[in-house]
Amino acid sequence: MSEQNNAPKKRGPKSVRSKGKVKAEFEGYPVGRNGTVVDPEQVRKLAALGCKNIEIANFFGVHDEAITRIFEPELTLGREELKITLRRAMLENAVTKMNPALQIFLAKNILGMSDSPVTTVEKLPLPWNDDIDKPIKGHEFGGDDDLDATE
User: Fold this and answer.
1) CA 91, CA 85: separation in Å to the nearest integer?
2) Is the separation of the CB atoms in 104 and 110 below 8 Å?
3) Which of 11, 32, 112, 118 makes a 20 to 30 Å CA pair with 100?
4) Separation of alpha carbons 114 and 108, rounded Å
């Protein structure tokens, strides 16, 4: 048994938290009964990544309704940033990388194009007139006699 006590102890890598927690100061709003301080800039960044309210709330350890109520402007701004980033990436992929599927998608959604032609009153073809020899109102053209190619 004394041999076991004399055996060298295995030492692994030191833990990242070996020194314990340190105090850090940042501005935020106290949320919930325990007053957890939530940084609004961090909420905006998480919303810009596409995180749902419940995921943001779980990240900070608070209730999701509090996040929704207190940080509504930051959530809206972050989600708008996500849309802009996604739109920028889509346009870059469609234009610089010449992705035809994405070009078609953007043409349909941004430009309003479609695969099938839409027939409306405004887009109907002009009516065909079989009575070519009859004069048209406001014009003195009466037929082929008025056309002279030698002039």
Assistant:
1) 10
2) no
3) 118
4) 6
Distance between CA atoms of residues 54 and 31, nearest Å? 14
Phi, psi of 73 (to 5 degrees): -65, -40
pLDDT in tens, 82-127: 999 999 999 999 999 999 999 999 999 988 888 876 666 676 777 7
**Could you tell me the pTM of the whole model?**
0.59
CB atoms closer than 10 angstroms to residue 114: 9
Rg value, the chain, Cα: 36
How far, in Å, are 21, 27, 35, 37, 59 from residue 24 at the CA level?
A: 9, 10, 16, 11, 17
138: left (phi over 0), alpha (psi -120 to 50) or beta: left
For the record, the structure tokens of 112 come out as: 């309003």
Residue 35: phi, psi to the nearest 5?
70, 35
Other C-beta atoms closer than 10 Å to the C-beta of 64 total 14
Return the amino acid letter for 32: G
